[in-house]
């Protein structure tokens, strides 16, 4: 059963607005067979790193994820389990970064686990290097979250204005 919106192997883009040192447009891929789609564009929404980062159970900062987007780290439980934890905490979406911090090019296909559970919020996969750099910048600035715009329509941005992360080859 196909979902409306993005298809497999299509990309979704988001831009970090602050902190300024990572004010780039990042590429993510949607989960293949679970989760919702972005029916709304968020011009300014918080990207909140989950605590604990793997988000496999109760969150210490769940109150900050309510009505925001969570940044979660791969590992410890299924992609679907992470998505459901964020959904249960009222998150609007989840971005799951690879736990291989040196991964700057390989997108993992997030698929349903064997539990027959569902999730309604969008779930996106982010390269490990990108997730690491976002978390590192927040730590360096002592910030609890980044401010992002999602999704971003990159077809309307001239190539010379596309601010891509310098560590990623496009």
UniProtKB/TrEMBL annotation:
Keywords: Glycoprotein, Secreted, Signal. It comes from the Eukaryota. It is found in: Secreted. Residues 47-131 form the PA domain. GO terms for cellular component: extracellular region. It holds the Pfam family PA. Plays a role in the modulation of physical activity and adiposity. This is Protease-associated domain-containing protein 1. It comes from Scopus umbretta.
């Amino acid at each position: 059963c196909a979902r409306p919106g993005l298809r497999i192997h299509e990309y979704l883009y988001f831009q970090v607005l602050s902190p300024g040192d990572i004010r780039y447009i990042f590429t993510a891929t949607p989960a293949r067979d679970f989760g919702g789609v972005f029916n709304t564009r968020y011009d300014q929404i918080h990207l909140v790193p989950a605590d604990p980062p793997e988000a496999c159970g109760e969150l210490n900062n769940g109150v900050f994820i309510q009505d925001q987007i969570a940044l979660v780290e791969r590992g410890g439980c299924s992609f679907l389990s992470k998505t459901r934890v964020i959904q249960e905490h009222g998150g609007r979406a989840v971005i799951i970064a690879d736990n291989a911090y040196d991964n700057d090019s390989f997108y993992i296909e997030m698929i349903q686990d064997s539990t027959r559970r569902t999730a309604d919020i969008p779930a996106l996969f982010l390269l490990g290097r990108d997730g690491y750099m976002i978390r590192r910048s927040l730590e360096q600035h002592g910030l609890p979250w980044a401010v992002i715009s999602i999704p971003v329509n990159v077809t309307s941005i001239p190539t010379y204005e596309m601010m891509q992360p310098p560590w990623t080859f496009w």
